[in-house]
Amino acid sequence: MSSIAASIAIGRSYSDHRCFSRHSCWDEDEKGKKSKFSSTLIMGKHKNRRLSFSPRASSALATMRNSPHPHFHQEVLKAAREKFTEEISFQSKDKDISLAKALLYVSAEDEAFMAFNQEKDARSLQIERRDTSVKSNAQEYDSLEAMPLAGKSIREWLIELDTIAEEVKAELVSRDIGCHLVEVLEAVNLVLFKSRGFIRPPVLINPKNSYLHSVLSSGCGSAILLSIIYIEVCRRLHLTIVGSRVGEEFLIWPQSGNPEELFKVTSGHSLFGVVNGRCVDDPRSKASDLSSNSLSGLDIATNRDIIGIALANLIRLHWKRASRSNHGLMLMSPLRPVCDGNEKFSNIDGSNFPLVRPQDLRLAIMASERLLILQPHNWALRRDHGMMLYYSREYEAVVQELSICMAFAPEEEAGILEPFVEKLHLLRLESSWKSLGHKGLLRVS
Fold first, then answer.
1. In Å, how far are 160, 208, 226 from 166, measured between CA atoms?
2. Which are the contacts of 118, defined by CB distance < 8 A and separation ≥ 6?
3. N or C: fewer beta carbons within 10 Å in the chain?
4. CA 44/CA 261 separation, integer angstroms
């Protein structure tokens, strides 16, 4: 029987709120000993967090003035981030947050950024080959809402979810089936996984499988995105689906005041099994150990939590692509040399600086910026965000982010970061020294 079955296991990724090293639990809000760097930087930092663009992103926006469509790209980037921030605002009730809208705004911002890069490449090629006509694929639209994502606007993708829900209703009518919960869920499974052919790739490598518009278009998506589609379709059928992290899986089930009903076996399977599929019977999965008693003890993921899982997956995938040419490179690698000069990436002065793919790194940073809007006091997330900025060589921003991180991090973690931040201060001093025309190195050892 087709189901969200094989689609829910998320695997080892950011979605379990772990980063690239231990002690990266993004659910924690630990407050350790404050660092001497943090007290002056925390105040006011989050007041303007609504639209947070790094210096290089701001520079990119400024460069757009030379583009044939500068205002369009700039407006879409800003409007998409603004709309996302508005959608997940803590001033709104969690139940009023639309998973689909929030993730489509994520898609729009990232697509606009990549389109801008493509336009820059086309313009550079045109300048290099003045005798050759280079056709630009850039298109101009009058608003974020009109921007096509895989051929459809944000509104049209929302209508696509409405259409899937209507197909489920039509399936129920055609089979003369009533509104019994099991039959409705079976109809949802039939439409999504048989009629529409949604599948989960065996190995999640392509970030496109983690963008909602792309998954709706191609039918191939990550586990969490398929779960979100399932939740959104059922919501349109006035059926509330909830979910929770269980081990390395994200399990979903219909909200019920009677958990025993979910595990009652009818026609060979339980209601819980209808939604989650084969993993329920797989002894290797923690889902197989669940019962009505243990289910009631799980922490139900909020809409903000689910959006956070989707963003965490994007960070992980984009970072993996950004660093693919440096086997073994981790976000935390630069922290090791401060204590151990024999490590592979041992020079903080940039003489042995690993090269990463800039577009993928920027996309990872953008996903991290959005997740920080959701989790502003998450020290591990902020540390990882700062380290990505380090690979982007935005040292001033790195010092700011890591100094704030140390205010919330446990004392042990703050102690690891402090000498690294001190070195970065000296690097900035050396950079200023050279910019004034002085020759030679300003020793930082």
1. 10, 26, 18
2. 137, 138
3. C
4. 50
Q: Of 301, 320, 219, whose CA–CA distance to 2 is shortest?
A: 219
Q: Is residue 131 very low, low, confident or very high in pLDDT (cuts 50, 70, 90)?
A: low
Both tokens assigned to 169: 């209703």
* Structure confidence by residue, pLDDT tens digits, 98-123: 999 999 999 999 999 998 888 776 77
Show contacts of 291-300: CB within 8 Å, 24+ apart.
291/263, 292/259, 292/260, 292/262, 292/263, 293/259, 295/253, 295/259, 295/262, 295/263, 296/259, 298/244, 298/246, 299/244, 299/245, 300/242, 300/243, 300/244
254: tokens are 């219909």
d(CA 109, CA 81): 7
Task: Give CA separation, 303 vs 89, 98, 300, 308, 371, in Å.
Answer: 11, 8, 10, 9, 13
pLDDT tens sequence across 244-257: 988 777 889 898 87
Among 24, 19, 48, CA closest to 400: 48
Residues 3, 198: Cα–Cα separation, whole Å: 10
Distance CA 50, CA 90 (A): 11
Distance, CA of 112 to CA of 127 (rounded, Å): 23
Q: Long-range contacts of range 271-275, CB-CB < 8 Å, 24 or more positions apart?
A: 271/181, 271/182, 271/185, 273/3, 274/1, 274/3, 274/182, 274/185, 274/186, 274/189, 275/3, 275/4, 275/185, 275/230, 275/241
Cα–Cα distance, 45 to 38 (Å, whole number): 11
Question: Residues 281, 303: contact at Cβ < 8 Å?
Answer: no
